[in-house]
Amino acid sequence: MKKSIGKFLQFNGRTLYFLNKDGQYWIAIRPIVEALKIDYTWQLAKLKKHPIWRDVYGKSPMRDSKNRLQEMVALPEKYIYMWIAQLPIKTDGHLQFVKECVDVLFEYFHGTLTQRREILSNNADLKVEAKQLETTLSDNSTYKRLMKVKSEIMLNGKGLKNLDTALIKEQMSMFDQ
Predict the structure, then answer these.
(1) Domain span at 73
(2) pTM of the entire predicted model
(3) Which of 18, 42, 130, 148 could pair with 8 as two cysteines, CB 3.0-4.6 Å apart?
(4) Helical pair 77-85 and 92-137, crossing angle rounded to 10 deg
């Protein structure tokens, strides 16, 4: 198991450290709550009861504020940002961080909705255009033949599906006896 301990970031005058364990970053929670001026004991108790955080936190050797190596409660980086965002806001820096989290989530989900809306709008435009083309071509004998052939193909497909369904029912009924 490969481990390395390094500097994570400077925050409110404190140096936060992380542990890189097998390619995953673990970040100590104590320096974060202390930098945010939040009671560590209370937050640790809440973390241990939370339906998400209780299953993902761990204890890892980390550097404390005096650069001493000691075992600290840590969260994987994947979870740390949302955990920080749900802490009680007591500083302007924390408030700004939470706003940035909101912006990121909004952009992700709104972007998905916007893309869907654009595709649906494009699809509606294509249907209108197709209807206009059908109207324009409705007097064309080749077009009329094409539509008749497509109709027959659809009927043949339905006929095959009905035959397949009947055959499956017949074969399944042999097991009912």
Answers:
(1) 3-88
(2) 0.56
(3) 18
(4) 100
